[in-house]
Design brief:
The chain is of the alpha/beta class. The protein has a single domain, classed as Rossmann fold (3-Layer(aba) Sandwich). 48% of the residues lie in helices and 12% in strands. It has helices at residues 15-18, 24-41, 59-72, 76-104, 123-133, 166-176, 187-201, 216-222, 225-230, 248-262, and strands at residues 47-51, 114-117, 138-143, 160-163, 177-182, 211-214, 243-245. Strands 4-3-2-1-5-6-7 form a seven-stranded parallel sheet, sandwiched between helices. Helix 3 (59-72) runs antiparallel to helix 4. The termini are far apart.
């Protein structure tokens, strides 16, 4: 065999190298450049973010589970709680639908205020579902986790992503966002909420952005940020960074009004 017949494998086609610690910087860069290209191709200018629990159910499914628990001796307490919390799934679905209708009515050549979620089940699914039912493109920024089964079926296929790194995923959440809606959730939801609040409080994110904590019965019990003011670890004005809201109508009015004031004339991503 002559030397000209030998073709060593290119480094970027070597899966062992590309998945090695030495190639980590390339993988990180890929999770920046590839989404950027797709967002530009799709003319995505900015987004409205929805965060919340992956565990919350649609009302009809929660009702079926309660009926099954009552009939078969299942966990009745859990089933009743699931039905009570299903209102947040349905409210997310309705709010995302209404915001999509509103964004589609704007006279803008780009796709504005596109609904974006983490792409999973629960509240994330509800947001993508509402946007899809309004016949709007929507985004799912998924994450590779052992318990996750890919993105939900309502995400626009060409705008479905799966990230390996949490920090690149959170970059794309906040870089495109012009509004945030935080539904009841667990550690991941709290992490995403406080990431946004910290960036705004420290001036790293300078854009004005409505942040809605939806559901006072949940947030008043889970967060006692007044205590941080009392102990002097935040300023009272920091509590003005967000609003606690209980109805779809109020959330819709606040978001669309503030986007009209601060964001409609400033299309495009940024911090």
């Amino acid at each position: 065999m002559s030397g000209s017949d030998i073709h060593p494998e290119r480094a970027y086609r070597d899966p062992e190298f590309m998945n090695s610690p030495e190639a980590r910087s390339l993988r990180i860069l890929a999770e920046y450049l590839e989404p950027q290209e797709r967002f530009e191709d799709f003319n995505i200018k900015d987004t409205i973010l929805f965060f919340g629990s992956a565990r919350l159910l649609p009302r009809d499914e929660a009702a079926r589970r309660l009926e099954a628990a009552e009939a078969g001796g299942g966990d009745l307490i859990r089933a009743k709680a699931d039905l009570r919390m299903s209102r947040y799934y349905e409210d997310t679905r309705e709010l995302a639908h209404r915001l999509t209708d509103w964004s589609k009515s704007l006279k803008d050549p780009g796709r504005r205020f596109v609904i974006c979620s983490g792409g999973g089940p629960g509240i994330m699914e509800a947001a993508n579902r509402g946007a899809s039912e309004a016949k709007g493109d929507n985004i799912g920024l998924g994450i590779s986790l052992p318990m996750e089964q890919g993105v939900n079926p309502y995400v626009t296929r060409k705008l479905a992503f799966e990230f390996h790194y949490f920090f690149t995923r959170k970059f794309w959440f906040l870089y495109l966002a012009k509004a945030m809606v935080i539904m009841p959730g667990g550690f991941g939801t709290l992490d995403e909420l406080f990431e946004g609040l910290t960036l705004i409080q420290t001036g790293k994110m300078k854009k004005k952005m409505p942040i809605i904590l939806y559901g006072s019965e949940f947030w008043d019990k889970v967060l006692n940020l007044e205590a941080l003011v009392e102990f002097g670890t935040i300023s009272r004005k920091d509590l003005d960074l967000f609003q606690v809201i209980d109805t779809v109508d109020e959330a819709f009015d606040i978001i669309t009004r503030q986007l009209g004031e601060f964001a409609i004339d400033n299309p495009g991503p940024g911090l």
